Amino acid sequence: MTQSAPPATEQFVQSLARGLAVIRAFDANHPAMTLSEVAKRTDLNRAAARRFLLTLVELGYMRTDGRMFELTPLVLQLGYSFLSGQSLPRIAQPLLEDLSASMHESVSMAVLDGSDIVYVARIHTKRIMSIGISVGTRFPASVTSMGRVLLAGLGEDELNAFLGRVELTALTERTLTDPAALHAEIVRVREQGWAMVDQELELGLRSVAVPVYDPQGRVVAALNVSMQASLHSTDDITETIVTMVTGLQEVAEKIREVQRAMS
């Protein structure tokens, strides 16, 4: 995962950008790495990567046993200011808890960040993915139900720009990798008001999502229910999806009503 830097300007601090790239290089698939691995994932030379890693160790954001590096809980402070200033997750959390309890499935809220979705709230009943999901987890928007709902909320020019720059990688044999097919699916999601992704992110995982609107009618987040595909037969899947979509839409409307009352 090479992280390219944006074009430099007079106000651009390249060393800060590189330091943040080192932090972002660590994720669920790479919780601990060697110096060489960090250098490769950030496109830095070994000397530069070493300086950034050791600086982060000195600041307490990283720890090392002399060979492997990993993040410390202190990095959570970097995201706390953002999350603490966001009303949506605070509004949604109790509503998601109730919805999860009634459906006996995991429910989540995410927002769009570039080409990814970022989880901002999560209630899980059981682990159904090989990768654990928590607040801050990122996935490609193109292969997730919440991502497609959020992409459907973009204007046509923004959507075309997204499809023009994103790399559509097959994560399973079901993943849509043709830009025209993905565009058609997002248009369909926009028209019907919800999305379902069936085993495109991971085999065995099916999810349904709906948009969350702000009082002005803009899509600002997405809600989803995720489930094991094997638990629902083709006979009852339609009824199950309708129930889930209805439940999600009711929660989304409650969130909008609270936002309206707060504005």
TrEMBL record:
<dbReference type="InterPro" id="IPR005471">
    <property type="entry name" value="Tscrpt_reg_IclR_N"/>
</dbReference>
<dbReference type="InterPro" id="IPR036388">
    <property type="entry name" value="WH-like_DNA-bd_sf"/>
</dbReference>
<dbReference type="InterPro" id="IPR036390">
    <property type="entry name" value="WH_DNA-bd_sf"/>
</dbReference>
<dbReference type="GO" id="GO:0045893">
    <property type="term" value="P:positive regulation of DNA-templated transcription"/>
</dbReference>
<dbReference type="InterPro" id="IPR012794">
    <property type="entry name" value="PcaR_PcaU"/>
</dbReference>
<protein>
    <submittedName>
        <fullName>IclR family transcriptional regulator</fullName>
    </submittedName>
</protein>
<dbReference type="GO" id="GO:0045892">
    <property type="term" value="P:negative regulation of DNA-templated transcription"/>
</dbReference>
<dbReference type="InterPro" id="IPR014757">
    <property type="entry name" value="Tscrpt_reg_IclR_C"/>
</dbReference>
<dbReference type="GO" id="GO:0046278">
    <property type="term" value="P:3,4-dihydroxybenzoate metabolic process"/>
</dbReference>
<dbReference type="GO" id="GO:0003700">
    <property type="term" value="F:DNA-binding transcription factor activity"/>
</dbReference>
<dbReference type="Pfam" id="PF01614">
    <property type="entry name" value="IclR_C"/>
</dbReference>
<feature type="domain" description="HTH iclR-type">
    <location>
        <begin position="13"/>
        <end position="73"/>
    </location>
</feature>
<keyword id="KW-0804">Transcription</keyword>
<dbReference type="Pfam" id="PF09339">
    <property type="entry name" value="HTH_IclR"/>
</dbReference>
<dbReference type="GO" id="GO:0003677">
    <property type="term" value="F:DNA binding"/>
</dbReference>
<keyword id="KW-0238">DNA-binding</keyword>
<feature type="domain" description="IclR-ED">
    <location>
        <begin position="74"/>
        <end position="263"/>
    </location>
</feature>
<dbReference type="InterPro" id="IPR029016">
    <property type="entry name" value="GAF-like_dom_sf"/>
</dbReference>
<dbReference type="InterPro" id="IPR050707">
    <property type="entry name" value="HTH_MetabolicPath_Reg"/>
</dbReference>
<keyword id="KW-0805">Transcription regulation</keyword>
